[in-house]
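Journal club prep, shared notes

We agreed each person brings one worked example of a sequence with its structure written out as tokens. Mine is Aste57867_556 protein. I'm keeping it raw so we can talk through how to read the token line rather than staring at a rendered picture. Sequence first:
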Amino acid sequence: MGWFVVVGLAALCIVDGAKLAPILVRGNRLYNSQTHERFFIKGITYDYDVSDANYPKSKSIIESNLKDMIGSFNTFRLYNADPTRTYDQFMAHMDSLGVYVMISATPANLEYYGKYRFSTITKAWGPNGDEVSKDGAALAQMDQTKACYPALLVEYG
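Then the structure, token by token:
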């Protein structure tokens, strides 16, 4: 699981013309490719639509919510990225703040993901993992896994 995170960080944080140096993986450590200093992730997660289609609306909200934290983190984990959309505005903004972006390894419930579509984590689980809360009513969980990273997501081949 850890290598998914590292690969996502190293590969997806780079934007054309980016100021941030790529992060290199050596064994189980991360390094800045320009300074060769060890890189430690100090990150946050944020679940908000930051695609180019929505970013003009969400940028001010994100800046308002994170204003007291800017400068205290170097990595932003993006929960859901729709592969049919672009994220150039968000990536450029994070680059200007000196923040790397790490795309989550779990897919969203989009048809694009095929058989992996329902291998996601639901945010509305009940305490026992068998029920999902929807509009205050408990429903039996039928299409999503109880595991954090289900076997289907780590399937090899």
